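Record type: monomer structure entry
Structure origin: computed from sequence
Chain ID: A
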Amino acid sequence: MRYSLLSRFQGGLLGGFLGETLIDSSSKREGTIASEIGIDSIEPWLASSTLSAEDWEQIGDRLSAALEGKTPTNSGELAVAALPILFFFHDDLGLLKEQLQHLVNIWQLSAQTLEDVLIWAYAIALALREKLDPDRLLPQILVRYRSAQTPLIDQLEQVRTWLEQGTSLRQAIAQISRDGKPNPIALALYCFARTPEDFRLCLMQAIRTGKQASLVAALTGALAGAHNSFSGIPIDWRVAVGKHPTGQKLTREATCLFAAWSGAYKLEGLDTLKSAAVTSPLVMQPRSSVKIISQGEYSFLDPLFNVDSKVIKK
């Protein structure tokens, strides 16, 4: 286990917040789309362990207000708004799809938009489960979603080619813009995959991607933060987050969200989580002499785990 899952939760959610903050640093608002909507979705979730249709309507109204009365026009906006939900369901994309369907229904978004967000959720899940190999990330996505009916797949094919050829950021943006409106998810994956082990460089590239830089930076920060963990965020940025009211609140909420995911029934006294060994299934190395249910692999596609009866021994 390279980093604790708690640190990855905090790094990913705060990474998204930092990405938007770098773009909106001149704004007088204390919060941004990712932080405001993320906190809005975390709080009712922690209270009832689910989000009702009414909760999703409130989240939708708040996001529309943050977008100045507009509804999301692309999957990047939905992916940013739903970051906490993507993290909570990183080990079960079937349940995640059910949750996101509420927001899709509220705005009457296309099935293509939902597919794009699930592709992004898969990348997040790989990072949280320590199965993200930056050199294989794009091929993994393209193999898994080769039959997806979305233009994002074509853009990701371009991204893979750029990475193989060492195409510069300026050239990549110019080319993808000529071919149509670039998907911020594709640009975020490109910015991350160029320098995956350097959180700062990932975001510095993302904020130079043009008109959708706020979305690209938020998405890039979320994936880079999940991959490199909270400790991978530069210390000066961590200090800045610790002084920011929204950053402080989001740090607490990220810890509570992780605690809820790990099965805690009381969210008080969470300091013990800092030393607890809690990870996604199959991240820890199993002992050969002990066979337990959790050592059986499961499918992302199925809501329930399929456990081989041979795994359980008397």
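Annotation 1: The domain at 5-274 is CATH 1.10.4080.10 (ADP-ribosylglycohydrolase fold).
Annotation 2: Confidence is low (pLDDT under 50) at residues 26-31, 286-314.
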